[in-house]
Amino acid sequence: MSDLSIFNQFAKKSNTPQLKTDGKAVIYTRVSTKEQAENNASLETQLKYCKECASKKGLEVIEYFGGTYESAKSDERKEFQKMLSYVKRRKNIGYIIVYSYDRFSRTGANGAYISDQLKKQGIVTISATQEVDTSTSAGSFQQNLYYMFSQFDNELRRDKSVSGMKEKLRKGYWVGGFPFGYSNRNPGKGKNPDLYINEKGKLLKQAFVWKAELNMSHVEIAKKLQAKGVKTNDKRISDMFRNPFYCGLIVNSLIPGEVIEGKHPPLITREMFLKIHNLLEVGEEPRAYSMDDENLPLKIFLRSTTCGTPLTGYIVKKKNLYYYKNRRKGSRENKSAKKLHLQFESLLSQYTIQDKKYIAPLKEIIYKAFVDMNKERIRENEIVVKAIKEIDKKLDRLEERFVFEEINSDQYKRFKGRLESEKVEKENLLSSSEFNSSNLKKAIERALKIALNLPKMWSLGDIETKRKIQYMLFPEGLGYDFENDRVRTFRVNSIFNVISSISDKKESKKKRNQHYKSEDSALVTAEGFEPPTLRAEI
Questions:
Q1: Residue 283, CA distances (Å) to 35, 278, 329, 330, 478 in order
Q2: Residues 359-370, buried b or exposed e (16+ Cβ, 10 A)?
Q3: Domain span at residue 233?
Q4: CATH number (domain holding residue 119)
Q5: pLDDT tens readout for residues 296-335
Q6: How far apart, in whole angstroms, are the C-alpha atoms of residue 393 and residue 399?
């Protein structure tokens, strides 16, 4: 029996998502700020390229989305979500066209996850300026790298801003909204604030006295302030009593573990602040602890997801066992240091490269992807470098003419000063560029080498090594959910996000080879931990 057609009814269906072939598409465009939307033609340019891409591929555009300003730091964007909802409802949409992948999303792995979920519905995200074949594994990986490095670019910009804020804080100047009771005599972006105690601050000072001298309840103090025209409540009063800013000191999550002498006038004395603090902590046995405690390296770095309070620690001397603790008054949140360290090492293993042979190709892939995303910036740098070389030639020619007495001393000095001033401006422009090829290569290489053995390096390292690894991977620290026994990530270094993404793909492929169900999640998490990135629902 040679004709097998009768058996076709028993043939298995493909598990590979089937792309829609109707040739229907939508276009999504955006800029990041209102100023960009009003003052340049970027949206028009994006739309032009997207239409040309649709025409080239023979696609029919049936709807347009965006056309306005939406920051892509979060995927909870009004037009973006409207577009996702539209393509999900319409069964004939096969393509979402964007100018570039950073117009679609700058949230790294979360953007990649959204694209992957769309692909499972038969919808492909394509870029008009970045040709990628997402039907292949290599193309999908390249698309994900674009998302990763859009996030990386965001973080470079953010880190530059945060570095300035940290420097300002360490000089004793407050950043952000000023605490209640203070006003600024020197407003303006980039200026150092000149704070003074306003009328409400003088009333607040009386509240501190009531607490320190009479130990009034917070509810009673709030009522007395309200009677004087100050809108507040007991919770807010409690927060202010715990803020050392009012005794002339600065603490901030941007400089964890540091206490800075502020430039602002103190509302109360430090003695009064400590007296109030002792009253607030009454009933608790005070515990001395050191930030450099080798046995509790995650102190301050971890904070409660319930209230945001940084975790401290203590030792049960009889058992010689260390514990982490939420020191918020009334909190009973404690966790064994030994168990929490094992959980943290398990989290680090998600960002670990299993074999040295992957370092070289990974370095090239990551670097090329980032360079490709920054072509415009690189071209600008090349133009500046060329201009500096031209100035050097002019300086050499100027000196030659002076030596051969073609120009006099005054002319030589005048033109030399002008050219040198122009050269300094160009060099400053070059040094301020956010893209630095050499530094990027070094950062990628260093990160990949560290990623070979993260858990062991952290476990065996001294307190400084542990902290460097912690903040290198998780710049904003981690949150700890005592109720569910989970550590939650806020932000992950983009390079390690790429490593984690590759590890997840390898693990997923391994599971498929072992006949695991194909719908199992591609992101494998250690028990007790959240995935390294948040995922938005399509």
A1: 55, 9, 10, 10, 29
A2: beebbebbeebb
A3: 182-280
A4: 3.40.50.1390
A5: 999 988 999 888 888 988 899 888 899 999 988 888 899 9
A6: 10
Both structure tokens of 57 = 């591929």
Domain total of the chain: 4
- Within a domain: residue 101? yes
- Based on the fold, state whether residues 192 and 264 are members of the same structural domain: yes
Determine the Cα–Cα distance for residues 421 and 404; give it in Å rounded to an integer.
Answer: 24
Task: Identify whether residues 71 and 153 lie together within a single domain.
Answer: yes
pLDDT at 323: 93
Amino acid symbol at 349: S
- Number of Cβ within 10 Å of residue 288's Cβ equals 5
CA distance 431 to 313: 43
**What DSSP assignment string belongs to 234-261?**
HHHHHHHHT-GGGGTEE--TTSTT--EE
CA distance 394 to 416: 9
Question: What DSSP element (H or E) covers 149?
Answer: helix 137-170
Q: Are 213 and 304 found together in one domain?
A: no
Q: Give Cβ neighbours of residue 141 (< 8 Å, ≥ 6 apart).
A: 502, 505
Pairing of strands 321-326, 334-336: antiparallel
Whether the predicted pLDDT of 486 surpasses 70: yes
- DSSP letters, 50-113, are HHHHHHHTTPEEEEEEEEEE--TTSS--HHHHHHHHHHHH-TTEEEEEESSHHHH--STHHHHH
**Do the beta carbons of residue 127 and residue 144 sit within 8 Å?**
no
Q: Classify residue 358 by its DSSP letter.
A: G
Backbone angles phi, psi at 477, to 5 degrees: 75, -170
What are φ and ψ of residue 324, in 5° steps? -95, 150
Q: What is the pLDDT of residues 272-297, one digit of tens each?
A: 998 888 766 554 443 444 545 789 99
Tokens of 38: 């009003």
- Position 526 confidence tier, pLDDT thresholds 50, 70, 90: very low
| Same domain? 224 vs 114 | no
Residues 203 and 256 in one domain: yes
Starting at the edge strand that comes first in sequence, how are the strands of the sheet with 124-127 ordered?
60-69, 24-31, 93-98, 124-127
Q: What is the pLDDT of residues 488-497, one digit of tens each?
A: 988 888 778 7
d(CA 527, CA 191): 47
pLDDT at residue 44, as a whole number: 87
Rg of the chain taking only CA atoms, in angstroms: 29
Encoded tokens for 466? 């542990």
CB atoms < 10 A from the CB of 427, how many?
Answer: 14
Please say whether the beta carbons of 509 and 530 come within 8 A. no
The whole-angstrom separation of Cα 67 and Cα 46 is 9
For strand 182-184 and strand 93-98, is the pairing parallel, antiparallel, or unpaired?
unpaired
Ranges assigned E (strand) in 225-270: 249-250, 260-261
* pLDDT computed for residue 152 by the predictor: 65
Confidence of residue 40 (pLDDT cuts 50, 70, 90): low
Burial, 26: exposed, middle or buried (Cβ in 10 Å; 0-12, 13-18, 19+)? buried
